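Section 5.1 Outputs to date
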Amino acid sequence: MNNETAHIWNQLNAFPFDAPNLIERFSDRLANQENWTKEYTAEVIEEFKRFLFLITIEKESMLVPPPDVELAWETYEGFYPLGWKELCTQVLLFKKPLIKYSGYNDDEGYYWLDEYYADTINKYQKVFSAIPPKEIWPSADELPGPFQIVQMRGNSWKQNNLYWWLIAPLFIFIPLLGHFISASFLIFIMFILVLILVIFFVRSGGRNSLRPTSYYDPEQFK
């Protein structure tokens, strides 16, 4: 490390992820949310820090985190936006908060993801002169499908399919109601159903389409 990167690493280690004025500390939220032990949560947060540091070292590279580090990233960014902004701009010294880049939805995207994830592990080993812990950084081959765990946490896949099984029959049976209700009311019901499907699709973000993800500095790809 040179002086600048060493300073960033020291600042990152000193950053108060669990600031005392928080209603719920980051580590507590993450542990409760994912049902992790305090010890494992602390290890994930440490790897989260290391991944963030890798981004400052490899600003022109696409870096892909392991699933649990991804969860830590999303939790901190989503629930602690002020801390996230301070972390990115004051500690990591980026001009703007880091953002997510979504990859492809096809087999090429899967290959793309595996390649960059493997490259991220190689960069980790070079920067930290250590092998990342296997329990947090599994190999791409050990993950269930091309990173399914990142995009389909918990029972989201089952929930998504359940929604489809509940809604799809309505499109079959509602037209039969045309014999009993007015055409205008039938059109209104169909419109509401279509609107629900659109909102559901947008919010799910293709969750079970296994979209590859990576993180990068927005200033690098204008």
